[in-house]
Amino acid sequence: MEIRFQAGGPSRWKADVVLSFVFEGEHGEHACPELEERAPWLGIAPAWRDFRGRKGELVMFYGPEAMEVSRVLGVGLGKADKADMTSFRHAVGSALRRCREYDLETVGLDGASLARVAARLGVDFAVLVREAVISALLGLYRYERWLSEKSAHADPRWLALLLEGEFVENDVRSAARMAEAEAAGLMLARDAANDPANVMTPSAFAEKAREVAARHGMAFRVLGPEELAAEGMQAYLAVARGSAEEPRMAVVEYTPKGAEGRAPVILVGKGLCFDSGGISLKPAKGMGDMKGDMSGAAAVLGVMEALGQLDASSAPARPVVGIMACAENMPGGHATRPGDIVTAKNGKSIEIVNTDAEGRLVLADALAWAQEQYQPFRLLDIATLTGACAVALGLGAAGVFSEDDALAEELCHAGTTLGERNWRLPLWNATSLEALKSPCADMVNSGPREGGAIHAAVFLRQFIREGVTWAHIDMAAADMGESPINAKGATGFGVRTLLCAALSDGHMLQ
Ligand code: BES
Ligand code: MN
Ligand code: ZN
């Protein structure tokens, strides 16, 4: 669906349907005067007067066919003091789904009603435009690749922002563009994570990364088993050993004009295309969800795609490097056994007591590699790392670990404004290191259940050099979901937070 603008006021507006947002209790006889200017029939329609604007209420109003605006979709937002950005996003997603169900080809968003909502929610108009556009696009996302009977309804051709002013303000235009780029990145991440593991193998993921890089003129490298071995990445290789699928570490480097030579932002994603648990095999129930254990890598690739789609004027001030550490954790004949000891790239030895704690092994080497190759401005990793994080925070939220207060706060703050719930958890180094003690190696890869997300984060911390600004995001509880802006399945979580972190250059943007 294309995003357009119609400036010049109501007399210029034209679409198959116009969406108008209404708070409960604020819907008087002339709730949307600008719209009644263009759709005069609305003012005398009894049904419009009956519309309450309750949360989740969606009512289509019809005027004479010949009018420029003959349909208005009333979108209820509920009580203004209870409404928030999340309920607004869901309302937009549901509304676009309704438009598609009715086969409406062109959709307008009543800008005046958006301005009223922005004022009520206490955000800039441009911020609300960004959220409206991304929610519209995400609401329409669907994963139908394998259905022999695809949906009969096509997406609307375009969505236009109907503006009251003569011109499209620059900040509004770039907010819409940003939303389009973010949505594209998010949908790419969702597709990759929804694809089953027999299709989205480590090699296939690396090819997808190569395509993203090629499409946007970014540099690309990939490390296979030989290269990983040559780099001394034995912890990473230990994970891949039990699978017939070879591991691939894909690296996409984006250097915007003027950013050459500056310290890069580095994003590292866990890319377990399938996590059976290995010899420490997982129980059958829910194991299929582990096709999504590459959601961290998918988020990183989504960020690179979004960066590639942004205009030069919105480009980051620093290079951004996306490292996607892909492998498959399987219990084959060559698989790592519990009790095996390997030496990671940074020289630390690890007793692998549980082959299901594989993400940290892959990330340990990927993080060490990243710090050898680059001098990061900031190093962020994102991973579906521990079920314990889901136990701690509940579904839909991610744990943020960092010794840098400003970075942790920035990530949590960005997440809050962008609809990704990030919550800081502690790095209790001393207790976790005690819990990860091995009698025969520098550490074990898996500690007690209690505080498992923290132990995993402290494990990763052992691979971070002094002075490097690092944060770890555990998104194990946020990789799957369902909502009006999320067709059941992969969420694309992390793309928005990480994109913000890549663009911010250390300053709070939102
Ligand atoms: N990929 C899993 C974590 C996970 C669980 C992600 C549920 C998404 C949903 C990870 O590799 C894993 O198996 N972690 C173990 C660690 C344990 C063995 C220390 C876990 O959480 O049980
Ligand atoms: Mn595992
Ligand atoms: Zn895993």
Mean pLDDT, rounded to whole units?
Answer: 97
CATH class of the largest domain: Alpha Beta
Enumerate the strands of the largest sheet in spatial order, edge to edge or round the barrel.
7-8-10-9-13-17-14-15
Number of strands: 19
**N-C termini distance:** 26 Å
CATH homologous superfamily grouping of the largest domain: Zn peptidases
Portion in helices: 25-40%
The main pleated sheet reads as:
8 strands, mixed
- Principal-axes geometry comes out as elongated
**What is the CATH architecture term of the largest domain?**
3-Layer(aba) Sandwich
How many domains would you count in the coordinates? 2
Strand content: 15-25%
In terms of structural class, how would the helical and strand content be classed? alpha/beta
The low-pLDDT segments are none
Q: What is the name of the CATH topology of the largest domain?
A: Aminopeptidase
Structure, explained:
The chain is α/β, with parallel strands linked by helices. The chain has two domains: about 1-145 and about 155-165, 3-Layer(aba) Sandwich (Leucine Aminopeptidase, subunit E, domain 1), CATH 3.40.220; about 180-505, Zn peptidases (Aminopeptidase), CATH 3.40.630.10. The chain is built from 16 helices and 19 strands. It has helices at about 35-40, 45-50, 85-100, 110-120, 125-140, 170-195, 200-215, 225-230, 235-240, 295-310, 360-375, 385-395, 405-420, 430-435, 450-460, 495-505; strands spanning about 1-5, 15-25, 60, 70-80, 105-110, 160, 220-225, 250-255, 265-275, 320-330, 340-345, 350, 380-385, 395-400, 420-425, 445, 470-475, 480-485, 485-490. It has an eight-stranded mixed beta sheet, sandwiched between helices. A six-stranded mixed beta sheet has the order 1-6-5-2-4-3. Strands 11-12-16 form a three-stranded mixed beta sheet, with helices on one face. Helix 9 packs antiparallel against helix 11 (about 360-375), helix 10 crosses helix 16 (about 495-505) and helix 13 crosses helix 16. The structure holds ligand BES, manganese (II) ion and zinc ion. Ligand BES binds next to helix 12.
